[in-house]
């Protein structure tokens, strides 16, 4: 796919990076780690808290089978359970694995861009992807989609490195690729749709016996999970059964009508439609279009080369020649293949095959995360190639690719961070900027409160803040679920969070439902600095 060579790659094909070349990615990675730690997202009382519950009781089954699919994603819950052994039910436990996965994704995207194209392509692609608002949030919240994407992208980066002969001890790295792919499946099952990209990258670069080194860890992952499910659920295929029933889970009528029984074009247009709703949507759509355009061009050139080769077998195009598509065009085209491998099955399962019973809610952009590295890398690479192809005066020719790529990268990143009128960026979002819950923890530790009441949703995430970020207990009172204003007794405290804010929308909505008004006998004892959290004491 990338080129027509059939021999195994050798180290001379691509020199090892000098130590100085590692300074840029290292500096960018440190900067991104600081950005993530500075913008830790507020835990949410939905799937996020279910994964914390699954980790706390790992290995176990949920009391309600409706949550089986979350408990079955042991690639996420097992590492979280390991962290929980040291840090308890805390912020560190909640954020550790997602942050590590986000950093792995950043490094992998940089490596792929650097190896296939240029250091500029790698750096700009990594920065653009890392600063997309939903990726910043997903990089610090306990959900499976971004970690699965990161693990698979790391496997792709290793496959590219093996293809280019950059890694010694190739069999060890093939085992690592197999481990990463198997782990990605244990985190999020439909990541398997993009797995064929790895064999494509390794085609004609490793022998059939070498391929076993990557295949065995994947096979062992499947066997191990089957045995685990048979032991715990009495169903070897419990993961398959739970995953295939996601579309049939109970949904509110207003939610169900957004993905049931819709026209065909709605399902086909889901990805661009959802991207367009983002503040950085125009830039993301541009990168997606450029990537798909490169894929079409690559396919056309490959077909033409195949036809000419069959018509005149003795006339074989030279390696990298125009008829062969050129190495850079083929490298850009492989990202379109990456997109197609996930877009086709997700769209079919998400409503095309059975609009009355879709298996997935495709309006959730996190289902599409595995495509984000592909079209960001592909789009940035195409911009770089176009700038190189334009005939310019000698003085500006060398600088043109950097100028074009950096300008587009800055525009997309700026929209992500700052947003547009009516579409604010992530920098000002309470989802990552609110310190109300840590502020409540500080107050609680010195308040002397014995009983605190919270709505049913806030009730699920408050225990994270009864301990320090690293798990040290700071409050030993009692938390009670609030159902109406008459429940709390005199001397008790009631806490309300995120009314009218996206810091925790479910918390705010539930609080408004159970407390349409504040009784006159309650007096306020705390309001957070961002005015999103309020505490009252009952007189």
TrEMBL record:
Its placement in the membrane is given as: Multi-pass membrane protein
Which sequence ranges are marked TM in the entry? 22-42, 94-113, 120-140, 146-166, 173-195, 328-348, 368-387, 399-420
Q: What keywords is this UniProt entry annotated with?
A: Cell membrane, Glycosyltransferase, Membrane, Transferase, Transmembrane, Transmembrane helix
Where in the cell?
Answer: Cell membrane
* Pfam families the record matches: PMT_2
InterPro entries hit by this protein:
LipidA_mod_glycosyltrf_83 (IPR050297), RgtA/B/C-like (IPR038731)
Q: Where is the Glycosyltransferase RgtA/B/C/D-like domain?
A: 81-216
Full protein name? Glycosyltransferase RgtA/B/C/D-like domain-containing protein
